[in-house]
Amino acid sequence: MLIDEITTGASDDLQKVTRMSYGMAMNYGMTEEVGLYNFDRENADIDKPMSETMNRKIDKVAKSMVDEQYQRVKDLLMDNKEKLDALVKALHDRETLVYKDLIEILGPRPVPIRPEYEKYVMATTNQISTEHDEVGAAVKAHREGLEEAEPEPQAEAIAAEIPRES
Predict the structure, then answer these.
(1) Last residue of some domain: 34, 53, 79?
(2) Is residue 132 within 8 Å of residue 96, measured between CB atoms?
(3) Which domain covers residue 63, as residue numbers?
(4) 21-35, 108-122, 140-154: which has the minimum mean pLDDT?
(5) Which of 25-39, 52-66, 72-86 has the lowest mean pLDDT?
(6) Same domain, 53 and 115
(7) How far apart are CA 142 and CA 163, in angstroms?
């Protein structure tokens, strides 16, 4: 379920990535093309801290960085389309996912969680997962019209508020 267009919801992300790419090129010396300079316009003692040629070079470098990373992310999403579709379906079906759900859908993490944090992640996951499973069962039973399921009263109340599909 990939959408091949940019929506207005991406505006803040685009603003941030543009600011970062210009910062890398102008302020932090993080590009070979521009070099180890800092052209911080806001704090500059002079009106024009760089030539027009350097200004064009910075624009070109910043645009190139954004374009390159945009393509990298698109390729990453397309390479993992099945996992992304499974994640979308799971979110549609359950609305809330916990760590255990993510592992089941996406597979193991490429870098394991540090042992001192794992107990917290798993404790929360198990607690939420149990509650999540009870509510999920009630919702499923309600949607399918099954009367033999006997969910907890709270889960049953939540399930009753969900409109049934005709």
Answers:
(1) 79
(2) yes
(3) 12-79
(4) 140-154
(5) 25-39
(6) no
(7) 9
Cβ-based burial of 54 (10 A; exposed 0-12, middle 13-18, buried ≥19): middle
* Overall average pLDDT of the 65-75 stretch: 93
Helix (H, G, I), strand (E, B) or coil at 120: helix
For tokens 């917290």, name the residue: 120
Is the confidence at residue 143, as pLDDT, over 80?
no
Q: Is residue 2 part of a domain?
A: no
Structural domain ending residue among the three candidates 60, 79, 98: 79
Q: How many residues does the chain have?
A: 166
Helix axis angle, 115-144 relative to 153-160, nearest 10°? 60
**pLDDT of 114 higher than 80:** yes
Structural tokens at position 8: 């207005």
Number of domains composing the chain: 2
Question: What is the rounded (10 degree) CA torsion for 19, 22, 28, 33?
Answer: 160
Whole-number pLDDT of residue 10: 79
DSSP assignment of 45-112: SSS--S-HHHHHHHHHHHHHHHHHHHHHHHHHHHHTHHHHHHHHHHHHHHS---HHHHHHHH-S-SSP
